[in-house]
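Our preliminary data section would be incomplete without showing what the modeling component actually yields. Below, a chain of 174 amino acids is followed by its predicted structure, encoded as tokens that our downstream tools consume directly.
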Amino acid sequence: MRFRAVLSISASILLAVFLAFILLPCPASLAKGLTCDFYDISDIPEGWTVTVPPGFNERKSSLGHYVNEEKNTSLMIQIAENKDGSDLEEVTRQTLNSLRSNGCTLLKDPVRQGDLMRLEVTSTGIPAVMWLGTDGDVTSVTVLCGDREEGKRFLSFFHASSKLIPSANLVSQP
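Predicted structure:
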């Protein structure tokens, strides 16, 4: 039940905060590559900065945020403990309810992409692609806003479970 509360708060706030982050100035890149509990970025490409480095907090939630100001593109990944063991369909249902109750608009029906669920949403008029995933122990929300080709290029540097993080080839698929 605690996870549902975190997911409800996270899903709606996540999209709004994410869209706000894309407009903010960003610090210089922190490293050539990045490693965290759930994914590695082999090399942070030119133009991309890490504005929020990922890492678990006391609520067992991790948030990573990456921006390419020149391409006006942002990628955010949140991973949280799945205390009630929700499957992907339940995570999607909870997220959709939370998004709708917080004024977000679903632009297309959810689409299953391998182990993930893809949503296209907006809360400010700026479209974003959101992927939901779970491996049973944790759930993930990945949000891409801006230039999808640039987001696809950035995701090609990620090494992660296909149950949690979308691969680059999923970005351009409907």
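The CA atoms of residues 13 and 102 lie 8 Å apart. The chain has a mean pLDDT of 84. Preliminary results of this kind motivate Aim 1 of the renewal.
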